[in-house]
């Protein structure tokens, strides 16, 4: 069997939504792609990616557990190839009033969005360090959110996990700059995926996908920023980008009130 010569990328939560579109963008740039997901549909997603003329490696595991994260990493490492791009994308939300939401749901979200991101980043960063600069690009995309720039009432712990991811990405970016490893944060605005339905937010303004950003465009912006070496990019239309500009001059209570209006259950 001949050794693959294409660069290799991984995308967590690559079976649907923004993650799948990130994988498509990378495939269209000539990368083989390893994708993870929780359900069996990760295999169908891999088949679709093969339609873009690359190899795809699906891995089914629960990103909320240490073993699930580690098993995806092991599957990627077992390919025995340099890793050129890692998209740490998987993330879930928990909507609702903090008084009412279930603690186990919130702890699971923190496990996926925070602990799982740090866990996989540790494996990726060390592997990229060890493989050195001579075996192609070394780039890491951390998927955060516009929610990182505002308090998020009615999904209060979610916004905090996304602020964690943004801060973490900017921090390791600075550490890895001299190594030549690029780290970029993608901050999508509200995007058309299954995310808000899965977060139990169907009874809020976010329950309607029709007004949200297009996930293909959000992913395209993220991958472009990653390859341009930008520190972060807001994913979405002009109104979404303006929202983040506005957040810089608003007080935390002002932002909280505005955000709370949109996320409050009807
Ligand atoms: N959509 C938005 O409005 C929005 C806005 C800002 C930021 N983001 C961020 O963008 C990222 C992607 O969100 P999305 O909108 O694409 O969400 P999504 O449509 O709900 O997709 C979630 C993906 O993650 C996988 N996944 C979920 N739970 C998992 C688990 N426990 N173990 C392994 N895989 C799991 C799913 O796999 P299965 O297919 O197997 O279920 C799927 O591939 C998240 O980090 C989110 O915080 C989203």
Task: Please explain how this structure is put together.
Helices cover 47% and strands 13% of the residues. The model has no long low-confidence stretch (mean pLDDT 96). It has a seven-stranded parallel β-sheet with strand order 3-2-1-4-5-6-7, sandwiched between helices. With 266 residues, the protein is of the alpha/beta class. The chain has nine helices and seven strands, in the order βαβαβαβαβαβααβαα. The protein has a single domain (8-263), classed as Rossmann fold. The longest helix has 29 residues, at 103-131. It has helices at residues 17-28, 41-50, 66-77, 103-131, 156-176, 195-198, 215-228, 238-249, 252-263; strands at 8-11, 32-37, 56-60, 85-88, 139-143, 182-188, 232-235. α1 (17-28) packs across α7 (215-228), α3 runs parallel beside α4 and α4 (103-131) runs parallel beside α5. The structure holds NADP nicotinamide-adenine-dinucleotide phosphate. The site of NADP nicotinamide-adenine-dinucleotide phosphate has 29 residues, from α1, β2, α2 and α6. Residues 13, 15-19, 36-39, 41-42, 62-64, 89-92, 112, 143, 145, 188, 190-191, 193-195, 198 line the site of NADP nicotinamide-adenine-dinucleotide phosphate. Pfam families: adh_short. Belongs to the short-chain dehydrogenases/reductases (SDR) family. This is Short-subunit dehydrogenase.
């Amino acid at each position: 069997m001949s050794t693959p010569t294409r660069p290799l990328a991984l995308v967590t939560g690559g079976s649907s939504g923004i993650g799948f579109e990130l994988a498509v963008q990378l495939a269209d740039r000539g990368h083989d792609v390893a994708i993870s997901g929780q359900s069996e549909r990760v295999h169908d997603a891999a088949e679709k990616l093969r339609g873009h003329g690359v190899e795809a490696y699906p891995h089914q595991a629960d990103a909320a557990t240490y073993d699930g994260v580690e098993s995806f990493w092991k599957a990627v490492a077992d390919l025995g190839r340099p890793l050129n791009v890692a998209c740490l994308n998987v993330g879930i939300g928990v909507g609702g009033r903090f008084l009412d939401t279930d603690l186990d749901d919130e702890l699971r979200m923190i496990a996926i969005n925070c602990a799982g991101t740090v866990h996989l980043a540790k494996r990726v960063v060390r592997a990229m360090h060890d493989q050195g600069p001579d075996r192609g690009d070394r780039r890491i995309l951390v998927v955060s959110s516009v929610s990182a720039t505002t308090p998020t009432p009615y999904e209060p712990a979610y916004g905090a996990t996304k602020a964690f991811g943004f801060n973490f990405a900017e921090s390791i970016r600075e550490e890895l700059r001299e190594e030549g490893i690029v780290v970029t944060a993608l901050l999508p605005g509200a995007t058309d995926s299954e995310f808000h339905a899965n977060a139990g937010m169907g009874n809020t303004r976010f329950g309607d996908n029709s007004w949200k950003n297009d996930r293909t465009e959000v992913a395209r912006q993220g991958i472009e920023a990653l390859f341009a070496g930008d520190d972060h990019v807001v994913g979405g239309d002009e109104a979404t980008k303006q929202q983040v500009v506005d957040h810089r001059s608003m007080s935390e209570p002002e932002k909280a009130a505005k955000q709370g209006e949109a996320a409050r259950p009807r």
